[in-house]
Amino acid sequence: MERWRYTKGLHDIGNDCFAYLQPDGSFGWSNAGLVRGEGASLLVDTLFDLPLTRAMLDAMKEVTGRAPISTLVNTHANGDHCWGNELVEGAEIVASKTCREEMLNELQPEMLAG
């Protein structure tokens, strides 16, 4: 059985499901998922900041070209899973009530840099 390679980028894991990986997976280096459907895709989480999320979305363009991202699911409110949300324009954001409240009240990246 072939071992999975933990390399940065978009990986086709089968059945129109994709994983975007960011080794080494330490603080701030989260991963994301993409499920392509007929005419629309679902994205699971964005990344820690806008440049990282932009690079991820660029890597997904070949997959999402005919199936644009229409739904974004945030698994939780940590910045490395939601601070890139604004780049997924027009997508419905799905999150738990607790996640929503935490996203609205969490420190923003600019506050952490200071």
Show the helix and strand layout:
Layout: E1 9-14, E2 17-21, E3 32-36, E4 41-44, H1 50-64, E5 69-73, H2 79-82, E6 92-94, H3 97-105, H4 109-113
Parallel strand pairs: 4-5, 5-6
Antiparallel strand pairs: 1-2, 2-3, 3-4
- Order of strands across the biggest sheet? 1-2-3-4-5-6
- General form: globular
Mean pLDDT over the residues: 91
Main β sheet profile? 6 strands, mixed
- Content of β-strand: 15-25%
* Helix-strand sequence: EEEEHEHEHH
How many helix segments? 4
Mind telling me the C-alpha Rg?
14 Å
In angstroms, what separates the terminal alpha carbons? 48 Å
Question: How many strands in all?
Answer: 6
What share of the residues lie within helices?
A: 25-40%
Regions with little confidence, pLDDT below 50 for 5+ residues: none
Classification by helices and strands: alpha/beta
